[in-house]
Design brief:
mainly alpha, 3 helices
């Protein structure tokens, strides 16, 4: 039986090997990207009432807000981690 650390390393090896054999990375991840973008479309227009142009604009704004929120949380976590380690940020 393997330990959690060994399982993590085995999974990383498998992922690296899989990506090393992938000729078209963009094609491999296209479905996931499309699904994420459609998530924002559904978020801003769940009933499908907006024009395609307005839905696209609002979805882009929602996407930017989402990633900016993630950046803020990341910066806050880094600051907390630095303070916990004895840094002075």
């Amino acid at each position: 039986m393997s330990t959690p650390t060994e399982r993590t390393l085995q999974a990383k090896i498998a992922a690296h090997e899989s990506w090393s054999r992938t000729p078209d990375r963009a094609a491999r991840t296209a479905k996931a990207r499309d699904a994420l973008l459609s998530k924002f479309d559904r978020l801003v227009d769940p009933d499908g009432l907006l024009s395609p142009e307005e839905r696209a604009y609002r979805a882009e704004q929602a996407r930017k807000a989402h990633y900016t929120r993630l950046a803020l949380k990341s910066a806050q976590a880094r600051r907390r981690r630095t303070r916990a380690e004895g840094g002075d940020l």
